[in-house]
Amino acid sequence: MDFKTLTSGLSVSPQITIADLPAIRDAGYRAIICNRPDGEGADQPTFDEIQAAAEKLGLEARYLPIVSGKVSDADAAGFGAALTELPGPVLAYCRSGTRSATLWSLSQADRLSVADILATTNAAGYDMGGVVRRIANGGKTPTDRADARFDVVIVGGGAAGISVASSLKSRKPDLDIAIIDPADIHYYQPGWTMVGGGIFDAQDTVRTMGSLIPKDVHWIKAAVAAFEPKDDAVVLDGCRVVKYDRLVVCPGLKLDWHKVEGLVETLGKNGVTSNYRYDLAPYTWELVRGLKKGRAIFTQPPMPIKCAGAPQKAMYLSGDAWLRNGVLKDIDIHFNNAGGVLFGVKDYVPALEGYVKKYGAHLNFFHNLVAVDGEARKAWFDVAKPDTPVERVEMEFDMMHVCPPQTAPDFIRVSPLADAAGWVDVDQSTLRHTSYDNIWSLGDVMNAPNAKTAAAARIQAPIVAENLAADIEGKAPVAQYNGYGSCPLTVERGKIVLAEFGYGGAMLPSFPKFLLDGTKPSRTAWLLKEKILPPIYWKAMLKGREWMAKPEKISAR
């Protein structure tokens, strides 16, 4: 039998026969629901035959026949009631299992999120794209009319979304553009490392979203529930529908704090902190200033993560503070990295290794944080060295800086836009979707193999704007992305190793070597990070002023 588990209390399956019933009972099921009308296929037993045989085996049976493609709101409510009334676990079946999965999806729509429902049904092999609006509408049938329509809809109001909106407006001032984002606040996230190092104040990394939305761009303050790319529609929470001619998807990624057991409960106390959260970065500096002796652990999860250098930046700035305070000799620093290298671009590694040695840090590769007990000041890591069985090790700590596991947002992972890993599937040169010609993506959410940094989004935004504008004019893509990303590695207060690179680790320096050699620690790079990049972000990048970010044209062949 091909049972597909949806929950601990319900599985669905294709058509069953009387001969299958003993196996169904032996698998632990206590009731069955038939969602296939009698006589739909010549080879199917009638429900009365199934019910009689099931009852002899001690199984309850319920008949809720659904004509294919015609699941009513009442049908969904009846299915939900049956799940409550029947002893579980329950097996529901129809011809393929799709109708049963659809009934479950609609019956749970007022309890579970759209993303959770789609993830569950997708994992079982059922596509609920055809009823996603109903799921978003609490399981009820909505009207199919659009609540709004725009030339361009941008999902995400972060660095990528606002920048691409501004770049589009500078090219096509008459475009009717909307940004969809539920957040009230916009953060300059590259500044949080500096907050954790005692250099920036946290409040200097914050602006209200309303103050940054470009002039004449609509702001839809809502969360996206689902995408319907075949109908050029975005479904919002509450089932409002926004239609578009062209779509840009850039909502960032999801910090999956809950993936580490015990982490959420202890963040911000018990010596556990993270510069990946606005409210926690000041706590990092508080811990660094207060630590006089003991063990400090800095963690890095498996890739991909945004700003891959941030976990070690925290280590370097902390080590430098302890050195300046004269306590470094009494602090045992550990950098526990789930990966196998210090930094993915080898040209920058020698300089970084010099600072690892300077601060006496231990590099523990293939160490992935899986659990924390903050009150006991203990952490557990799965050590997965190549060709070696995974070993779980325990480490005590006095301070621990955590970089959380990261994934694409739930509503992206379960959408038709995602690749097998859950990221938006784009052509890595043009940033256009591989399946939908009127969709583009940029920033942390798309699957091009580049570093996920704000510097990358700064370069990507004009490229997407240029190619989208060309598409409006009926032209082929005219700009290409070379994978540029930048990671200013703050190795000490006053010096930075400025890593700039593209696809395949190719070096892509912005300045001549005599002016700034990115492979060596530099005060010039520090000045860039501390004094120049923040105003460039607020006053240039988000305003569509493409300083040092003009798109590279696609060469004629």
Automatic annotation (TrEMBL):
Keywords: FAD, Flavoprotein, Oxidoreductase, Quinone, Transit peptide. Its cofactor is FAD. GO terms for molecular function: FAD binding; hydrolase activity; quinone binding; sulfide:quinone oxidoreductase activity. Gene3D superfamilies: FAD/NAD(P)-binding domain (3.50.50.60), Protein tyrosine phosphatase superfamily (3.90.190.10). One of its GO terms (biological process) is sulfide oxidation, using sulfide:quinone oxidoreductase. InterPro entries: BLH_phosphatase-like, FAD/NAD-bd_sf, FAD/NAD-binding_dom, Prot-tyrosine_phosphatase-like, Sulphide_quinone_reductase. Signal peptide: none annotated. Residues 150-269 form the FAD/NAD(P)-binding domain. Residues 2-109 form the Beta-lactamase hydrolase-like protein phosphatase-like domain. The keyword Transit peptide applies. NCBIfam families: TIGR01244 family sulfur transferase. This is NAD(FAD)-dependent dehydrogenase. It comes from Phaeobacter gallaeciensis.
